[in-house]
């Protein structure tokens, strides 16, 4: 099994915002990866996306990928590496209140593992992935099943 890197890393993105909250808009740029620029606006955040992203979608992307990595690592360390994990994170935003919850749904293909052990491993990943820990101020729920 490959060793985990222990050197600290920093990833960077930046946003340029023009105008007021309700009438303005911005562009978030992924500096570290160079994967591009993506428009953001209040209507895209609080109503329909209309081709724009939001902080909540970015959190969902971060959480689903971090959770998948943590679960994959935990399963491999237990001797049952997954063939595939399909993870979705739904981040709920309520204007005026903020982020009110995150729900992770994961379906795994894990040869030699039963459903109960998979759910236990998924709960552990939910509690211990770095993004879950960073988001501990909100309620995080989980649905886990084998394919």
From TrEMBL:
Coiled coil: none annotated. This is OsmC family protein.
């Amino acid at each position: 099994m490959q060793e985990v890197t222990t050197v600290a890393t920093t990833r960077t993105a930046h946003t340029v915002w023009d105008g007021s909250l309700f009438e303005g808009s911005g562009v978030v740029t992924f500096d570290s990866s160079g994967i591009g620029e993506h428009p953001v606006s209040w209507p895209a955040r609080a109503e329909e996306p209309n081709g724009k992203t939001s902080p909540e979608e970015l959190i969902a992307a971060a959480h689903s990928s971090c959770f998948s990595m943590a679960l994959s690592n935990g399963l491999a360390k237990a001797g049952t590496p997954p063939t595939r994990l399909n993870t979705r994170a739904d981040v709920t935003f309520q204007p005026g209140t903020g982020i009110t919850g995150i729900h992770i749904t994961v379906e795994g293909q894990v040869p030699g593992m039963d459903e109960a052990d998979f759910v236990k491993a998924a709960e552990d990943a939910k509690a211990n992935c770095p993004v879950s820990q960073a988001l501990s101020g909100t309620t995080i729920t989980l649905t886990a099943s084998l394919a």
